[in-house]
Amino acid sequence: MAIAIIGGGISGLTVAWYLQQAGVAYDLFEASDRAGGTIRTQPTEGYLLETGPNSLQLSDDLRDLVQDLGLTEQLQDTAAVSANRYVLRNGRYRKLPGKPQQLLFDGFFSLKARYHILRELGRPAAPTDPNETLAGFIRRRFDQELVDYALNPFISGIYAGDPEQLLLHKTFPQLAALEQAHGSVLKGFAKSGGGQRRRIVSLQGGLQTLTNTLTQRLTHYHTGQAVTSITRQPDSAYQLSTSAGAMPTLYSAVVLALPAYAAAALLKPQFAPEAAALANVYYPPMAAVYSAYPRAAVTHPLDGFGALHPKKENCYAAGSVWTTSLFSDRAPANEVLFTTFVGGAQYEEHARQPEAAQKAAVHQELSQLYGIQGQPTWQFRYYWEKAIPQFDARIVPAHAAAATLAEQHIYTAANWLAGVGVPDCVRHARKLSSELVNL
User: pLDDT of 129-171, one tens digit each?
Assistant: First the structure.
């Protein structure tokens, strides 16, 4: 029997691709008229906007997928300045230390914080705690200043999340592992080489080139067909009904490549407890405001990937990516483009403000922080009512539900299980496809 995949984001597309490569029958159903899920490239009035991920870390699995699809020559590296990351501190942007050993000598942190960093080398490991949050871990190993000015903006930038809520073992279990193995996180980093920074890339024409190419290569991709029900038959096979009617095919397994809330709605009639756990996963709202200015109007050198705003600085936005510093082709010549993020778990009330108010507030903040004279030449907003799933206490029952469903041959390929990054989703989807081949 074939395998049904529900959802045409990067996870569902990757599962389908590797099943197809292995000669396994499948059907992929996507409710909308386009594939790619949150990966969306939008050319607009001379600007090339990414209204989902702005760039990708080129992991081994993602590199293999790009190579398999014949897209290696279309990879587009970020400019060299992308290695620089800035954080707002006391009202001005300061470059964040790029390596653990620079924490003591860079001058970004106070003498007191550097003393606590030095003391971390001799602090013994504590027993593992599955309920420990990221903030709790960094505070325990270092001090509050590192929570405020390193962890908080970093987590806001990746998860749109609150480090006081996100669980260590669900987000960065490698930190706990370094503590247990070496007694000190910094010693662990030093002995492991500190980790190599991956290439940060896009693709010519934007990231949607990846998902568009996958869609074109798949032989059993069904667009515009929303799955409305999943019914388990007496022989344990599954039958699906879609907006086009009941499917004649019976499926030996179902892959849910959907947000947790969407999967919950499908599962509720037959798997009510699991559906309830998935429905409880928290997705905060977020808006991206794109603002373009003449380069001559911006006094800041914009020599980096972008800048993040710690919650302690009481800013309106969580931070901005300096889009044209990474990829010069994203705006007309002699202009700079900022992609500014408003909302997330720590700024939820800002995310829900009217579009005009958000644009005005972002422009005012950019003008103040970057020394910008005059009005933007162009602005655009994109809004997600449910942005990034939060790996807080509510994700634990959802992950347990996914394990229970897998015992019934209903599998999950989605960022709320795999991890929020595209490389995480590709890795998880590739691994799952290998397991499905051997069913």
Answer: 999 999 999 999 999 999 999 999 999 999 999 999 999 999 9
Name every residue whose Cβ is closer than 8 Å to that of residue 260 and which is 6 or more positions away in sequence: 278, 279, 281, 283, 389, 398, 414, 416
d(CA 148, CA 309): 10
Q: What percent of the chain has pLDDT over 70?
A: 97
438 pLDDT band (50/70/90 cuts)? confident
Using an 8 Å Cβ cutoff, are 54 and 208 in contact? no
CB atoms within 10 A of CB 79: 16
Query: Which two three-digit tokens encode residue 316?
Result: 């309106």
Contact 293, 10 (CB under 8 A): no
Instruction: State the maximum Cα–Cα separation within the chain, in Å, rounded to a whole number.
Output: 70
φ and ψ at residue 272, rounded to 5 degrees: -60, -45
Quick one: pLDDT band at residue 195, thresholds 50, 70, 90? low
> Model's pTM, two decimal places?
0.94
pLDDT in tens, 330-354: 999 999 999 999 999 999 999 999 9
Place of tokens 């202009």: 335
Rounded to whole angstroms, the Cα distance separating 124 from 286 reads: 39
Closest residue by Cα to residue 1 from 325, 265, 237, 161 = 237
**Percentage of the chain surpassing pLDDT 90?**
88
Closest residue by Cα to residue 210 from 329, 322, 60, 72: 72
| E-assigned strand segments in 108-244 | 200-203, 221-223, 227-232, 238-242
109-113 LR contacts (CB < 8 Å, sep 24+): 109/145, 109/146, 109/149, 110/145, 112/143, 112/145, 113/142, 113/143, 113/145, 113/146
Q: Is the pLDDT of residue 241 over 90?
A: yes
Strand partners, 200: 57
Q: DSSP label at 220?
A: S
Ramachandran angles phi, psi of 256, nearest 5°: -95, 100
Number of H helices, E strands in the chain: 18, 19
Alpha helices in 200-251 (DSSP H): 208-217
- Relative orientation angle of helices 272-279 and 260-267, to the nearest 10 degrees: 160
- Range 298-325 burial, b when 16+ CB lie within 10 A, else e: bebebebbbbbbbbbbebbbbbbbbbbb
Quote the CA–CA distance of 423 and 44 in Å, as a whole number.
Answer: 27
